[in-house]
Structures are given as structure tokens and as C-alpha cells.
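Q: Sequence in, structure out?
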Amino acid sequence: MTGPALPYYLNSAGSPGSDRAAAMGNPIPGVLVIFVQMSASNPLSSIHIREAQPADAQALSELILDNAGALLRSHYSDEQWDVFVRYYAVPVMAEKISSQAVFCVERGGEIVGTVALDGDFVVGFYTRLGYMGQGIGKMLMAHLEEYARGKGIATIQLAASPIGVAFYLKNGWHTVKELTLEYLGVGFEETLMSKML
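A: Exactly. Output:
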């Protein structure tokens, strides 16, 4: 049975916002409002966006490597794939969690998506394979954009893999240029993109 679309308030820390703001019909500044159609079959009806903790490093590493293994592996040489795996290994993820603003989205206690902000650069944006196409990535990116605005960042940028460009273009990003980024001495062909907030 499907219920009415209910506002779901997330504050900049990714916690549910105030019921008082909902009752007033006017969200308080810094609170991201997401309307969720409540139902047992809707994957968005029980999600929670929060900052990643060091204990999440393994789950985030596995999510990213599973996603990339299925979607990006065919675009990478063996050398590039080896670097990618090392770049998202558990100890490296733990370092990223301590040095970047890393967010994860949970559903039923399972991490189903992640994104991070390193300065004004969006990195590590992945959704668990079984949850793609359900709006989780869009919701996670909206949360990150609200977080960046709260930090006074006017424009964010990212380096998109070949398969990510279409998603970003549909969501307000603009192509800046094609470039080769080096990670651990190995080049990756990517597209630099930006978005004004």
C-alpha cells in the first residue's frame, strides 16, 4: 500500500531535520527537503544519508570496487584497474574518510551509495549495483551540493569517467575539457566537469 508523499528533511549532517520545520511548511535554512513516496516497495522510503565513519571503510571499498568492476573494468587496462583497486583499498578509504567530507546513504542498515567532497572537487560517487536507477544517486548528489553551499562553495567540479558523463549532463553539469589524470603514475582519460551551485 502506498501512502502520501511525505517531506523528509535532512540537515547538513545528513540527519533527519526538524518536525517543527515540516509543521511550519517552511524548511529551516540548511535543511534539504526531499519528498519521499512512502511504501514498502519504494527503496527511498527508508534511506538515511550520513557522514561516513572509519568503520565504514571496508563497506565503502567493497561497494566502489563492485560497482566499478561491473561498469568501468572494460574501460580500463589491467594496469589502470590495478591502480583503481589500490586507490580504493580499505586502508586508503579510511584515510579518505578522515581527510574528505565523505557521505554514505543507507537503506535498512546497508550502505547503498557514497560520494565525497575534497575541497571543491566531487570524488568517489558510486551507487550499489542493485540500487542504480532508483534516485539514490540524485538524492546523494543533492545532499552533497547542499553541504557544499553551506561551506560557501559556489562551483563544484569533478572528473567523470566515460560512462558517467551522460548522468552529469542530465543533472546540470557542464563539460570543461577532456583530460588525463595520473594516479600512482598511471593515466586515466576523464572529462573535467563543473556545476554552479
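Residues 46-196 form a domain with the Aminopeptidase fold (CATH 3.40.630.30).
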